[in-house]
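To whoever is on call:

I kicked off a structure prediction for a single chain this morning and the downstream step that reads the tokens threw a length-mismatch warning. I double-checked the sequence; it's 308 residues and nothing unusual in it as far as I can see. Pasting both halves so you can look.
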Amino acid sequence: MPDAGGLCRIVLALLPLALPIGAAATSPAAQAAAPGLFETPADAFADALRHSTGAPARADLGPDASVRLSGDLIVVPQDQAARLLVLWNLPVPPDLVALLLGPKGMDAPGIIRFVPAGFVDDATAASFAADDLQSSLGDTVARGNRARLQQHLPALEVRRWVRPPQYDPAAHQISWAALILPTTAPLGSDGTTTLNAVAFGRRGYIKLSMVTSVQDAGDAGQMFDASLSGLQFRPGAAYGDVRPGDRRAPDGLAGALGMDALHKKRTMLGAWLLDNVTAIASGFLATVGALSLLVYFRRHRYLESRRW
């Protein structure tokens, strides 16, 4: 259980869930509670607090890892975490292991997942600068815009880093947050951002994510740093415990970072060439074909003239 001060702050942050019980009870999640879920938000709220772990204790993050908590942080275990996410109409990841809550409670929950993708070699992360990763992320977002437009959603683009990528090679951890906005948003616009952190282990990685405003990203980043500093893989499950026969993550480092591929930042000429490579190649082949045909006809006419 959390200490008294931390528990009081979390209770105040979660209080909106418990108070409007009448209104919440008419929500779809409350009306059609699945088997095993509590029928009222107040029940889920109370149960989450009973099962949560707070500073200065260590909380389990699935079978491979745990985290030592500090300050006002608490960890809500998997079952209770899923119930709270349902009540807030938030998606429940299939690999959810816990929620990380700070002073803002469910206004800014940290989603903790363990992705059993296999071992990811993070050594190449040191070779990519922040501009390289922004370019890689920008390409991934751009490639997803066709599907977004088909769903009548606005096209998006990466504007800047809110929290530039930070790579800790000793701890095998990476954290970052980008500002991704509709392409039509005016320059200088702010909005929400998703803070991300990945900690690599032998059989997969812990991924922590939190949606927050750009203005609150600094405080949320401190919360991330505190949790990452206390995160630890169990003996036999740590990054350094990998064996040659262990399964490797098929999508590698790029997949763990949510990107299609990692590459160095392209120059404007390089980006133009990449975007127009098909047209350039087609034009080149057409030109070569036309010249070959011209040479053929001229040679043919020459040979015909020699025959007569």
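Update from on-call: the warning came from a stale cache, not from the record. Cleared it. Sanity check on the structure: The two ends are 105 Å apart (CA to CA).
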